Amino acid sequence: MTERGRVRAWAELLRVSALFTVPGDALAGAAALGARPNRGTALAVGASLCLYEAGMALNDWADRDEDAVDRPHRPIPSGRISPAAALTAAAALTATGLGLAARAGRPSLAVGTALAAAVWSYDLHLKHTQAGPLAMGAARSLDLLLGATATASRRTAAPRVGAGAARAALPAAAVLGAHTVGVTVVSRREAQGGSTLAPLAALTSTAVLGGLTGRWRRGGPVSADALAAGGLAAVYVGTAGRPLAHAALNPSPPLTQRAVGGGIRAMIPLQAALAARGGAAGTALGIMALVPLARKFARKVSLT
User: Fold this and answer.
1) What percent of the chain has pLDDT over 70?
2) DSSP character string of 247-303
3) Where are the alpha helices (DSSP H) in 63-196?
């Protein structure tokens, strides 16, 4: 295999096009505290990226026999990457992610450890159980909480650290986790299709989450942050909702896969809407700047 072929294989294994949906977790976590991103936030982003990629590598290692039947083109069943190399990468990325979380402080290490446990538990066992979608939702929620705790640990003015930071970020984490649960439920049928109920339920959930995130608080003037949150929530609903509606009407494998991809891409405007709702419209714009990059890479490497 050529060097270019090896790079391509690892890019497919690690789903590099989906990486752009990760930094917004930590940034939304910082915004939930009413804080600007700082060094702790950057460490959380690094930890999140490593743990996310660890999950991708571990997922394909655990699914190698199933993929040999349903997706023989994937890097492991096609022989472009060995199972041992994928497992080694997953372990190394997990260790690196936890190391970065530790540098952000003990509370961040605790949340990062829980996140790593959720990732490994999902890939190795929970994926094919009823608890699978909840485990994935918990992982995304924990990723946002990782950003909150890491940001709080680096603040010098009256920081809310540990449990205090996590509590402040829980509402945003719950929204992001709920969206992830819906996408995961739909993804369980992406290779076979045939499920109308799953995309319909996810479509309903998307509408509810968009309404909650973009809703203005009553009793006060409408701020620029509130307007930004409303607009970004609408973008989120449109990004996830259209392909979900198509999959509900025609649950074929291609349309179901597009619905999953749309749900993954919708993470970015949802994170941005949560950041704006937390009073960080500037951070929200920064998160949205990842959209064109995600689209560019998605044309080269599939999100799913």
Assistant:
1) 94
2) HHHS--HHHHHHHHHHHHHTHHHHHHHHHHHTT-HHHHHHHHTHHHHHHHHHTTS--
3) 64-70, 83-103, 106-124, 132-153, 163-187
Decide which of 1.10.357.140, 1.10.357.20, 1.10.155.10, 3.40.50.920 is the CATH code for 3-298: 1.10.357.140
Residue that has been written with the tokens 């998307």 in this structure: 206
Closest by alpha carbon to 47, among 138, 145, 169? 145
**Coil/strand/helix, residue 14:** coil
Q: Cα 304 to the chain's mean position, in Å?
A: 13
Cβ atoms 204, 185 nearer than 8 A: no
pLDDT at 157 over 70: no
pLDDT tens digits, one per residue of 178-234: 999 999 999 988 877 778 999 999 999 999 999 999 987 655 556 888 899 999 999
Residues 258, 303: contact at Cβ < 8 Å? no
Q: Which residue matches tokens 């409408």?
A: 222
Does the structure show a pLDDT above 60 at 156? no
Phi-psi category of residue 173: left, alpha or beta, with phi > 0 → left and psi -120 to 50 → alpha: alpha
Domain parsing of the chain, residue ranges? 3-298
